[in-house]
Specification:
Radius of gyration: 19 Å
Number of strands: 11
Distance between the termini: 18 Å
Number of helices: 12
């Protein structure tokens, strides 16, 4: 962790929970050039780790009989994707709908000068709506027909949030609070819709190759239901434990979530699998399940063992968005030791 900060990251926070080890640590500072140290209580933007939480809400609706995984989106909100009436709930969850991500197009359309960093920073500080996302992807050709490929799509999860709000009559922020954060015991997680990080939070900045750019004005609406959540390493471990243990919806549905993609991508329904590094030679293959998240200023990972006995999560603030392929620091320098620590 100290090496990653020495290489240029602003802060690193890590937590490991196993039957034999409970360990949390943080190093670096809360902001660029800021004396207050990062702490293990520090909240950070989890970005696409939010997708696991949205997928949990969707699976709860499957359990309730509101829809099935193969329900057509058009049957829930007619005309949501007017040129793609065959898209299903499963397609959106598994990123197999063919819809592009939408985020980049939406931001570029708001930039006064696409080549200007100032313009980019200003654009990600603007308000965006769910309809802005949908308009962005409905205005362009899709990557492939539903079910015939894998295209990672933020817009797909924005659409899922829209569907959840339609059938529940509640906003996603309230749904997450009542049906994910509270039952999982995530006491320091939130779903903000305005800029700003307070208290012990790890503030975001990015490096352009010459200077740091503050993201204090970043509006989480840029990621919306695909990545607006804020959490801590402890809460992420608590969440993945509750998820894989079947505490948040009918455990009989969990196999569908973990194996829900028709393609051999390793991506299920809002979660993906990686090989478990703790498997010894001659033992059967095992998997870790979870997700990662990349905001403009933070990288994060949260994974759990399939049996729910081991979890880890980490976050690194201070992303390198310059053209230098080597970057300032290597996530694997902290990720690999953390993975091995779970063994």
């Amino acid at each position: 962790m100290e090496q990653v900060v020495a290489d240029g990251a602003i802060a690193v926070t890590v937590r490991v929970d196993t039957p034999d080890v409970t360990w949390a640590g943080a190093t670096g500072t809360r902001d660029v050039g800021s004396p207050p140290p990062a702490t293990t209580r520090g909240e950070f933007r989890v970005a696409s780790n939010t997708k696991m939480m949205i997928a949990t809400l969707v699976m709860q609706e499957v359990e309730a009989g509101t829809w099935t995984l193969d329900t057509l989106v058009d049957d829930v909100i007619p005309g949501l994707f007017p040129d793609h009436p065959d898209v299903t709930i499963r397609h959106l969850l598994s990123h197999t709908s063919g819809a592009p991500t939408g985020t980049d197009r939406m931001i570029v359309e708001r930039m006064s000068d696409p080549s200007s960093i100032e313009s980019q920073v200003a654009a990600i500080g603007l308000d965006y709506t769910e309809q802005d996302y949908l308009d962005a992807v409905n205005a362009v050709p899709w990557e492939h027909a539903p079910g015939e490929g894998f295209t990672y799509s933020n817009a797909g999860y924005v659409a899922l949030g829209t569907l959840l709000e339609k059938v529940s009559g509640q906003e996603v922020a309230q749904l997450l609070k009542e049906r994910v954060f509270k039952p999982a015991g995530m006491r320091h997680s939130s779903y903000p819709d305005e800029p700003g990080m307070r208290g012990h939070a790890l503030r975001e900045s990015f490096w352009d190759g010459m200077q740091w750019w503050s993201l204090a004005g970043f509006d989480p609406d840029v990621f919306s239901h695909a990545g607006a959540a804020v959490s801590t390493t402890q809460d992420l471990n608590t969440f993945t434990d509750a998820l894989i243990s079947g505490e948040l919806f009918d455990p009989d549905l969990l196999p569908q979530m973990l194996g829900g993609s028709p393609l051999p991508t390793g991506y299920g329904l809002g979660v993906y699998a990686v090989p478990d590094p703790c498997v010894q030679p001659g033992e059967p293959q095992a998997l870790l399940w979870g997700h990662d998240g990349l905001s403009f200023g933070t990288s994060s990972v949260a994974l759990t063992s399939s049996d729910g006995t081991r979890q880890f999560s980490l976050a690194v603030t201070g992303r390198n968005l310059s053209a230098d392929p080597e970057g300032l620091w290597d996530l694997n320098d902290v990720l690999v030791p953390v993975l091995l620590a779970t063994c």
